Amino acid sequence: MFNSLIAASRLFLRSKVAVSIRGENYNIIYRFYRKMNRAVVRCVPSESKLTISFALDGSNKQMLRDQTEELGKALARIANSLIKGQGKAKKSKKNKGSPTEAPDPAVSVRLYYNGDVVPEDAINSEAWQDGAVLHVGNREYTVERNPPTFTTTELPASLLAGFPVCPRLEVEFGDLKDCRFKWFKERAPVAGDERGRGEEGWVEVGNERVFIPSNMDIGCKLKLTCTPGDGKRCGVEEELVTVATVEAGPGTCTFDNRHMYTNKVTDDFTVRVVSYNILADVYAQTELSKTVLYPYCAPYALELDYRQSLIKKELSGYNADVICLQEVDKSVFSDSLSPALDAFGFDGVFRIKERQHEGLATYYRRSKLKLLSQHDIMLSEALTSDRLHEELLDRVNSNPTLKDKVVQRSTTLQVSVLQFQNEPSKKICVANTHLYWHPKGGNVRLVQISVALKHLQHVITQSHPDASLLFSGDFNSTPSSGVFQLMCQGALPQSHPDWSSNGPDELCPMDASNPFRLSSACGEPAYTNYVGGFHGCLDYIFMEPRVFQVDQVIPLPNHQEVTTCQALPSVSHPSDHIALVCDLRWKLSPAMSSALP
């Protein structure tokens, strides 16, 4: 018996799989022995089949059976599988010249629950209960139905000292807050020590979901062991080892000094808002970007994994309540940002641009806010199909050239209505957008912002009249633009030069109005976008000043920090834009503000 357990433990070391139960420490042999004597059943009511998994004769058996099938058929399938396995083994021995043996009698396979045999005419979905015992010959397996299980486990490729390492984890039948984590780093091998960097060559360095390596970890790989849980029980421990080693970070980043102003989470009366165009990877990796737009940026600093390491540290250090991001790659949202920000307490929603690979993301601190509803639109589609914009569409139709340009754009408006957890009467309508980029596209942007404002007015008046508006994004508009004037002054005359920004062929003069009274919470910075051929203020966080007062605007990086490597992005800044960050304090209740004239 002891020898078989030793053999099992050696197999465990090769498989790198273990079970750890509610903080108790079990030795390797017992953990593996327990794993070998468990039958995991995955049975989801919405699915037609269930899965039965267990280890038998050193191999993993997994069967997919109909939930409505009788138990007897499933048990017979297990018995037949064992007989076939024995037949293959005997045939292999015969081919090798070993003497043949008489066939083993049929193996008895039974399922017990509370000591009683489960009838073979019971259907699978009811027969395989948690705590049942499967008997296969003289072997016994404890049935675990729908135990917590990781369905995705992945570590990032880029590891930088001083920057958070956030694993991508997805768990079924459990919750990440109930999972257990242990981080290890490689122990440098001692001269003459034949063990090298094996199981005993790791040093435990952390037990949180996110790990921040230090300079002492440079040159070392990291290992994470994580055990899924649901608050009552734990599943099978998973082990992940990084492919790369920890590398030195870039030193001081442009956002490090900014974090000194945001080292604490805000109180219940304040909302910290971030708006940030993070530069989509789909644009950063083009030849145009590398050779024309950002030739001053080191190629490795344009790589997605490297920039994501910086972005995660930057965003987590702001301790924000609401984060509005633009140019978010679809895969970045699901595979990188959301797993990381989830670990820091954020939930998020994503809206991709039609016919594109990037879009908008809005994150909110789940302990403070909850999502009530979403009202996203594609601006061109809303203009042409929603009767709300009939008057504007009539004017745009008068200039086919302008209309074609507007309709071709996939510009999107993301609208999320959030409610405060501690005071349900407080709601904010968070709008997030990224308007048309072309320098001569001021007329297109004016049409886009007119559609956006009309839509927001409809959402608030019809669905959430007690919500206050926060409108963030990359508006691709300087403070002298028609868009900025319309947002902050409430009206724009038809004489504004932006109506003819691309020449007389696209002239479509009209008076425009803004139903909201808004102001720029962060004022008019000298620039929020700084590249080799351009710098200017393009990003804003617009708020209702009758509802909010600005508590603080987090200072932008100074000019020397921005231009250390000539322009942005750089090894110390992950985007060509700079994040806007501000704290907004409630002046009065939303109900009182809505009653004002």
UniProtKB/TrEMBL annotation:
Record-linked InterPro entries: CCR4/nocturin_mRNA_transcr, Endo/exonu/phosph_ase_sf, Endo/exonuclease/phosphatase, PDE12-like_N
Amino acid composition bias (Basic residues), ranges on this chain: 87-96
Cofactor: Mg(2+)
One BP annotation, GO: mRNA processing
One GO molecular-function entry: poly(A)-specific ribonuclease activity
Keyword presence, Transit peptide: yes
2',5'-phosphodiesterase 12-like N-terminal domain: residues covered: 147-247
Endonuclease/exonuclease/phosphatase domain sequence ranges: 275-577
Nuclease among keywords: yes
Keyword tags: Exonuclease, Hydrolase, Magnesium, Metal-binding, Mitochondrion, mRNA processing, Nuclease, Phosphoprotein, Transit peptide
One GO CC term on file: mitochondrial matrix
Region listing for Disordered, in residue ranges: 86-105
Subcellular location(s) of the protein: Mitochondrion matrix
Main subcellular location: mitochondrion
Similarity field: Belongs to the CCR4/nocturin family.
Name assigned to this protein: 2',5'-phosphodiesterase 12
Native source species: Esox lucius
Lineage: Eukaryota, Metazoa, Chordata, Craniata, Vertebrata
